[in-house]
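Think of the structure tokens as a kind of shorthand, similar to the way a musician reads notation: each symbol stands for something richer, in this case the local conformation of the backbone. In the example below we present two proteins back to back. Begin with the first one, reading the sequence and then the tokens, and try to describe in your own words what changes along the chain.
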Amino acid sequence: MRNIKSLEEVKDGGPIFIYGSGLAGRMMLPKIEITLGKVSGFIDSHKDGIIGDMPIFSFERFSKENKEPSRVIIVSMYFKEIWKYISNTTNIDVYNAYEIFLDMQRNQHRILNQIYELS
């Protein structure tokens, strides 16, 4: 697992999946797609289904169905536990982008505070 400070650090090649279909993963989806291209779906330890038009794969289903090398971007505060859970999986490059999400949140709060101070 690579801890990244920027999405530009994610290497080219293979479909992109976001591990974590909660608020953080969903908030990062547009940023990831703008920077890296189309996301193929979410992976989640506890869910399987759909959010909007985006599939959510349980990790068990993902590991059975996904046959090509993929990029998995973890966007969850539980990144250490997720890494332990998926670390033996072959065919995936794993990136921890939770710090990027936190930076995005801090920037949004800073902007909202500035707007509030102006009013």
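Once you have a description of the first chain, move to the second and do the same.
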Amino acid sequence: MAVEHCPPSAWNRVRHRVEYAHKENRGLQRRLRKVEAKLVGVRHIADAKVILMKTHHVSETEAYDLIREKAMSSRSTTEEVAKAIFEAHEILSMGGKR
């Protein structure tokens, strides 16, 4: 069947499929952004735990508990606290590398 001979109902079906695929794609892109952000947060938490383990000589569990307690007391997420710890450590570490 040639394109110019397609009935309008066929075009409507194609249009609906394209609209559905586009909507599904947007939803998948949103999910991907959320998963990527979560992964960055998990990495920050892992980095912050290592920093706390080395600087405060605590176990991994104790390091996470410190992060969690700070997050709860400051009404923020563990990811935000971990990012702050990581960034502060980077800044403070720069002093000895001049």
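Compare your description with these statements about the second chain. The chain has a mean pLDDT of 90.
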